[in-house]
Specification:
Oligomer: heterodimer
Strand order of the largest sheet of chain A: 1-2
Helix content of chain B: over 70%
Structural class of chain A: mainly alpha
Radius of gyration of chain A: 31 Å
Shape of chain B: elongated
InterPro entries (chain A): ZNF511 (IPR039258), Znf_C2H2_sf (IPR036236), Znf_C2H2_type (IPR013087)
Number of helices of chain A: 8
Number of helices of chain B: 31
Largest sheet of chain B: none
Shape of chain A: elongated
Keywords (chain B): Membrane, Transmembrane
Number of strands of chain A: 6
Protein name (chain B): Transmembrane and coiled-coil domain-containing protein 6 isoform X3
Organism (chain B): Cricetulus griseus
InterPro entries (chain B): ARM-like, ARM-type_fold, Armadillo
């Protein structure tokens, strides 16, 4: 298709258009047996007109997803230690260190050194654990906010909050809200199965590396270490 | 992601011809699937790559005991490296569908995996996430559904900071979304929309592309118009999407492609297109079109421009149908002739690279010109009629579209027809009359009627060039008969 050369400079030019030619229709135009009227056409999503384009899109996705599944090469470097105070983890690849840093030191409470998966959860933790005003208010009104962003509900107790999240937001019933934390006392129920114990050790192992500066000035109950979420244990210590 | 990983494409053992052949096979399979309404299926999303001899990612079949052992080692091993290696071995195994089955049937396996996913050992987390990602690829819904317990955690991690991890979570979610309605049903109440709103503010291109992918899969689901799109439009996600599609130095094509597809599904659903218009979707799309034409001109790498053009055409075209008639005149885009210049530059580009896109581009041209004297005039003043006519012979669908656009121009009256006369139009029409496709001929007849009405000399010339004989060929055709008779009358008697 040969395009006029002026077209390219027009594209680069200023917005606007020539004055439209006058429109002057004859009523006989498009009159029976003729049919034509100018009209905009809309195609629904599954129309066969879209078949070619959809197929191309899928081919593109296939290629893309095959590549996503490949394990990325890592940038290997001489071993080094994480420089955050109290952290003793060693790394030999930059991506690994980056991931570790974000997950373990990213959203960290400066008061008790716990790490959280997101800034939002950190904020909630600080509020519920380190804010004495919160404690006072919580005695009189619903203060425990739902952890799902955008949900406005608040609750009297963290248990109520947990029930809400399980019931309404379909969180798994064993989503870790309660803390299994640092008390390694004999109070631990024997019901904890071996995997659980291992994970609990894990979270404690992390604590050894980054000892909390001072125990948080809030109540703790000890419950046996259930499965998922050692990091969630720490962050969702906020519900007790 | 695209540019990052392109360099790592492993060289396949087969030659160029074989690649082309395989691509044709893939296309055929996809076409068939679409006709059967099966296009949104996991099976087709991941191409079965040929097994490479000694490939480092060869799927390994693991037995129950081995799976258990790897899990135990990963969870309770004393040496960090050993735990990691156990997970890597598990992941390789999980590439095999039978291992996946074994895994999900093993009691407590998903709990353990989720436990590792949420542990505070960063590298174990990553490997666990990769295992989950493998599982999410499964074509068997049972496997995808077994991953349900992980979704709330995946969503929580979207607000984190580790971009590689987030990317992985997003692709995993995207795969689970495609496979299982049970998963989708769970994601909305678990807060996927706010999670995406938080995540879409990430500066990382790879994350944004992954997000766009996951979102496009969510929006493509059959229940999306009812269950998902309304919540999405209630959030600020749309504004962010449009922001990421603004042309300029920060535009990333891979990201824009994904969000353009998202926009396409939203527009087709017709849930609230007025909102899209009020948020400036039309100017954004128009500017994007101009930008793409500029890039095509510079003959930049075609790949992603082609991928972007299709959804942008569709979005613009369908959205134009939603502009209320009274507001038509106010839309700047419809009074800026650069948009038709851009469209033609792109059409020429597609002619060389992807002819299948031509019809969608011409459909857009129809919607732009149908009710727009301004843009019809632009086609004339920018000398675009001849290039348009050059497209006529390509296919019946394209012929009909070209003829329809010409009708859009001609029906506006004598002032427009005069600009087409004298010209190549008549001889082109005489050529189309030779064809047998009823729709093509029918549209030619419509055009002739308008032309004869507003430009009587055309009727004269038609007679002189044996037009009547050309018409006679189709006299017996029921759908054409009346119109042919009428034209014959007009030509002879004026």
């Amino acid at each position: 298709m040969l395009l006029p050369t002026a077209l390219y400079s027009r594209l680069a030019g200023a917005p606007g258009a020539a004055e439209p030619l006058p429109v002057e229709r004859n009523p006989a135009a498009g009159a029976a047996p003729f049919l034509f009227t100018p009209r905009l056409v809309r195609f629904p999503r599954d129309h066969e007109f879209f078949e070619d384009g959809d197929v191309q899109r899928h081919l593109y996705l296939q290629d893309m997803l095959t590549q996503v599944s490949e394990t990325p090469e890592k940038s290997m470097v001489p071993e080094f230690t994480c420089q955050v105070a109290g952290c003793c983890q060693v790394f030999a690849a930059l991506e690994d260190y980056q991931h570790h840093y974000h997950m373990s030191h990213g959203n960290t409470c400066s008061l008790c050194s716990r790490a959280f998966p997101s800034g939002h959860l950190l904020d909630v933790h600080i509020l519920e654990w380190h804010d004495s005003l919160f404690q006072i208010l919580a005695q009189r009104q619903d203060m425990y906010q739902c952890l799902v962003e955008g949900c406005p509900e608040k609750f009297r107790t963290s248990q109520d909050r947990k029930d809400h999240m399980v019931r309404l937001h379909l969180y798994p019933a064993d989503f870790r809200f309660d803390k299994p934390k640092t008390n390694r006392g004999p109070a631990m129920p024997a019901a904890a199965d071996p995997p659980a114990r291992a994970l609990k050790d894990d979270s404690d192992a992390m604590e050894i590396c980054s000892e909390p500066a001072a125990p948080p000035p809030c109540r703790r109950t000890y419950s046996h270490s259930c499965l998922p979420g050692a990091i969630f244990h720490s962050c969702l210590d906020i519900g007790l | 992601m695209w540019s990052r990983r392109q360099g790592r494409l492993s060289t396949l053992a087969c030659g160029v011809e074989e690649l082309r052949c395989r691509r044709r096979e893939r296309e055929a399979a996809l076409r068939k699937a679409r006709r059967e309404q099966q296009l949104v299926s996991k099976r087709l999303l991941r191409e079965d790559a040929p097994e490479e001899a000694g490939g480092q990612s060869a799927a390994v079949l693991l037995g129950e005991a081995e799976v258990q052992q790897f899990l135990r080692l990963a969870q309770r091993g004393t040496d960090e490296k050993e735990r990691e290696k156990a997970l890597v071995s598990l992941r390789r195994g999980l590439q095999h569908p039978e291992t996946q089955q074994t895994f999900i049937r093993l009691e407590g396996s998903m709990r353990t995996l989720v436990g590792l996913l949420t542990s505070n050992r960063a590298l174990l987390q990553l490997e666990a996430a990769r295992c989950l990602h493998e599982l999410s690829h499964s074509e068997q819904s049972a496997v995808a559904e077994a991953c349900l317990p992980a979704t709330s955690y995946l969503l929580t991690y979207l607000s984190g900071h580790s971009s590689e991890f987030i990317e992985l979570c997003l692709y995993t979610l995207g795969n689970l979304i495609v496979e299982s309605e049970a998963v989708r049903k769970q994601l909305l109440p678990q807060g996927i929309v706010p999670a995406l709103v938080a995540c879409i503010q990430s500066p990382h291109v790879a994350v944004l592309e992954a997000l766009g992918y996951a979102l496009s899969q969510l929006l493509q689901s059959k229940e999306a118009p009812e269950k998902i799109i309304p919540s999405l439009l209630d959030s600020s996600l749309l504004q962010h999407m449009l922001r990421l599609m603004q042309p300029g130095p920060k535009l990333n094509l891979g990201v824009a492609v994904e969000f353009a597809w998202c926009l396409h599904y939203i527009i087709c659903s017709q849930v609230n297109n007025a909102m899209l218009l009020s948020h400036g979707a039309l100017p954004t799309l128009a500017m994007l079109l101009l930008d793409m034409a500029g890039a095509a001109q510079r003959m930049d790498d075609a790949g992603l421009e082609l991928q972007l053009a299709c959804p942008v055409f569709r979005c613009l075209s369908n959205l134009l149908t939603e502009v209320p008639v009274e507001a038509m005149g106010e839309q700047m885009e419809l009074r800026d002739e650069r948009i038709v210049a851009a469209l033609f530059i792109l059409l020429q580009f597609f002619l060389q690279k992807q002819p299948t896109l031509l019809s969608e581009g011409l459909w857009l041209l129809n919607n732009l010109t149908a009710n727009s004297p301004t843009l019809c005039t632009s086609l004339l003043s920018l000398d675009l009629i001849e290039p348009l006519l050059q497209l006529l012979p390509l296919s019946n669908v394209i012929s009909v579209l070209v003829l329809t656009v010409l009708c859009n121009i001609v029906e506006k009256g004598p002032a427009y027809c005069q600009r087409l006369w004298p010209g190549p139009l008549l001889s082109c029409l005489l050529n189309t009359l030779v064809l047998s496709d009823i729709e093509v001929v029918g549209q030619s007849l419509e055009l002739l009627q308008l032309l004869f009405l507003y430009q009587p000399e055309a009727a004269q010339a038609f007679l002189q060039q044996s037009g009547l004989q050309a018409l006679e060929r189709h006299q017996e055709e029921t759908q054409l008969r009346d119109r042919i008779l009428a034209l014959q009358q007009t030509a002879i008697h004026g």
